[in-house]
């Protein structure tokens, strides 16, 4: 064996020894420690399920008697909450966030009452978030949970400038001091200091919980919207819809470090967020108890031991507010909460949806108007697609120009299909026409439309955003109806069956249908008469299909069609084609000349 070969084997042996040593002395102990933390978290989660009063729901088949919101709020002592974005109160029983109203978002366009996001126990659709502690150590079952009474130690009103301090002391000898603070938006910071005065060590596990009783009454059944429990753990997103949990499916349990859990609706979310440096286990579940089911997203941190006479600090967070993208990004950046923007349902076309959302925000800032931002975004997309569309429309113009020759070949070889196809191919080659080129702009438009649909359907910025004229809310369908001449006749057909429902078509869906028909008129007609009739019906069908959609989507579609018609018309005229529009103008001119004579 040569010197070089011997040195090579020695080097390989040293590398192998280093790798095995690193595995044995570093990686394996770290993995065992993580597994131990996970098991502790799972055991603590089991203790939580048994001991937490939140999970001890009454087992009854009878429908519960609900209180009014005001009555339920008055059942317990509270600390007032007032910030630029939220109003409400914090319950001193359980230290629950169960009364949060959103100042920036109203119930309807005409009703300036703030949206009530979180609702107290005892009301229909109870929805709250809270933070507590559990222990598996014998003799410490009295840690602060849902029924714990906290005392207001300092502060009188929770604002961004004035945090409040709560205190709870247990009979087992633990003292909990909790400082609750609020930022300028929807984030509450909960900093706890726990002192062990019991004289013996105790294992403690902090947990957070978001709970919603019953299915939300305004649940959106649409593939573009996700509503239900979700979590981010170790950067991975896990979600389960209300419907899946209702069917007895989708209960999840995921462990890791860094992340959050919550329950989200189309525009709103409540989330419980642990210390980002502590291992935790996230859990989704439904508690079936007779007439009312409770949907829960919880986390529980790994157990930590607190020695006698010692103190420990821990920080957690609760988010309760609107899913405004700039706010979600600020939470991620300012608090280090990983992937907090995943509370928005980006969909499987996220690589298009996310840039569209970013562009819409940018354009809204430039134009000062969300409707104009939609129009500008559509124009940008058309400019990006311009080269491809130009080639396609040019090919379609050539196809239309040679229609007479194509018809002649079909008649000449009517009895021989093979020769007819050969002759058509030769004509395409001679005229330099690609018959498939007309399909090219359609292919990218399909994912673009679905991505924009996903974007606009979930964008809270479109909610209650006005457009010009009669559109006061871009997220709602066009409010006009053709059966009262779009409001010119003073009666409301919305409550009348059929004409107020399926046949109740507004002005913007009709505009969209007209632009679609105009675009279709510029295309070469299908050779088959049946196909031609089907294609002629499509604008009418799409008018009815899109009528109940959000006005912002219909306006986008109509504006997109208009731009396509303008582009295609110019290309057709450049290639010497006479379009249906030209024929219509000639007929109108001829009629006008006849009337004058």
UniProtKB/TrEMBL annotation:
Ranges where the record places region Disordered: 38-57
Key words, A-Z: Cell membrane, Chaperone, Membrane, Protein transport, Transmembrane, Transmembrane helix, Transport
Stretches assigned to the Membrane insertase YidC/Oxa/ALB C-terminal domain: 370-573
Membrane topology label: Multi-pass membrane protein
Keyword set includes Transmembrane: yes
An individual GO BP term: protein insertion into membrane
Keyword Cell membrane belongs to the record: yes
Domain Membrane insertase YidC N-terminal: 78-359
A GO MF label: membrane insertase activity
GO CC, alphabetical: plasma membrane
PANTHER family in UniProt: CYTOCHROME C OXIDASE ASSEMBLY PROTEIN COX18, MITOCHONDRIAL, OXA1
Physiological role: Required for the insertion and/or proper folding and/or complex formation of integral membrane proteins into the membrane. Involved in integration of membrane proteins that insert both dependently and independently of the Sec translocase complex, as well as at least some lipoproteins. Aids folding of multispanning membrane proteins.
Family per similarity comment: Belongs to the OXA1/ALB3/YidC family. Type 1 subfamily.
Protein name: Membrane protein insertase YidC
Gene source species: Maricaulis virginensis
Gene name of this polypeptide: yidC
């Amino acid at each position: 064996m040569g010197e070089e070969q011997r040195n090579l084997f020695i080097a390989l042996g040293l590398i192998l020894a280093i790798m095995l040593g690193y595995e044995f002395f570093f990686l394996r102990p770290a993995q065992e420690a993580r597994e131990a933390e996970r098991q502790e978290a799972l055991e603590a989660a089991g203790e939580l399920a048994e001991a937490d009063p939140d999970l001890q729901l009454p087992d009854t088949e009878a429908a519960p008697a609900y209180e009014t919101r005001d009555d339920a709020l008055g059942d317990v002592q509270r600390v007032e909450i007032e910030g630029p974005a939220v109003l409400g109160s914090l319950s001193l029983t359980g230290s629950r966030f169960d009364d949060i109203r959103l100042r920036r978002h109203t119930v309807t366009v005409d009703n300036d009452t703030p949206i009530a996001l979180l609702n107290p126990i005892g009301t229909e659709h109870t929805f709250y978030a809270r933070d507590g502690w559990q222990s598996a150590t014998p003799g410490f079952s009295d840690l602060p949970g849902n029924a714990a009474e906290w005392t207001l130690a300092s502060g009188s009103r929770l604002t961004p400038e004035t945090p409040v301090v709560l205190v709870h002391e247990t009979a087992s000898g633990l003292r909990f001091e909790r400082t609750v603070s609020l930022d300028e938006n929807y984030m509450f910071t909960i900093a706890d200091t726990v002192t062990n005065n019991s004289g013996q060590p105790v294992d403690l596990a902090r947990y957070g919980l978001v709970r919603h009783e019953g299915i939300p009454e305004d649940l959106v059944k649409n593939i573009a919207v996700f509503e239900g429990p979700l979590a981010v753990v170790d950067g991975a997103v896990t979600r389960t819809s209300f419907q899946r949990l209702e069917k007895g499916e989708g209960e999840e349990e995921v462990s890791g470090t860094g992340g959050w859990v919550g329950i989200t609706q189309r525009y709103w979310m409540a989330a419980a967020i642990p210390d980002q440096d502590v291992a935790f286990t996230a859990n989704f579940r439904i508690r079936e108890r007779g007439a009312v089911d409770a949907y829960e997203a919880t986390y529980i941190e790994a157990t930590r031991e607190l020695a006698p006479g010692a103190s420990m600090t821990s920080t957690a967070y609760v988010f309760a507010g609107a899913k405004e993208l700039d706010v979600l990004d600020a939470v991620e950046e300012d608090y280090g909460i990983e992937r907090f923007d995943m509370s928005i349902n980006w969909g499987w076309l996220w690589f298009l949806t996310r840039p569209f959302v970013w562009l819409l925000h940018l354009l809204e800032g430039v134009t000062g108007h969300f409707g104009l931002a939609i129009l500008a975004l559509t124009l940008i997309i058309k400019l990006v697609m311009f080269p491809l569309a130009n080639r396609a429309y040019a090919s379609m113009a050539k196809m239309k120009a040679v229609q007479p020759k194509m018809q002649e070949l079909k008649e000449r070889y009517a009895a021989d299909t093979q020769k007819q196809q050969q002759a058509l191919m030769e004509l395409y080659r001679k005229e330099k026409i690609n018959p498939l080129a007309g399909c090219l702009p359609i292919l990218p438009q399909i994912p673009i439309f679905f991505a924009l649909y996903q974007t606009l359907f979930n964008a809270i910025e479109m909610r209650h955003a006005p457009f010009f004229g009669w559109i006061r809310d871009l997220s709602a369908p066009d409010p006009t109806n053709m059966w009262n001449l779009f409001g010119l006749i003073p009666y409301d057909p919305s409550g009348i069956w059929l004409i107020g429902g399926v046949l109740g078509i507004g002005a913007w869906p009709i505009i969209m249908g007209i632009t679609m028909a105009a675009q279709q008129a510029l295309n070469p007609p299908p050779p088959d008469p049946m196909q031609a009739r089907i294609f002629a019906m499509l604008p009418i069908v799409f008018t009815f299909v899109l009528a109940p959609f959000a006005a912002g989507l219909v306006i986008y579609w109509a504006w997109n069609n208009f731009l396509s018609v303008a582009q295609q018309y110019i290309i057709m005229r450049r290639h010497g084609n006479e379009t249906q529009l030209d024929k219509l103008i000639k007929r109108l001119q001829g009629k006008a000349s006849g009337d004058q004579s």
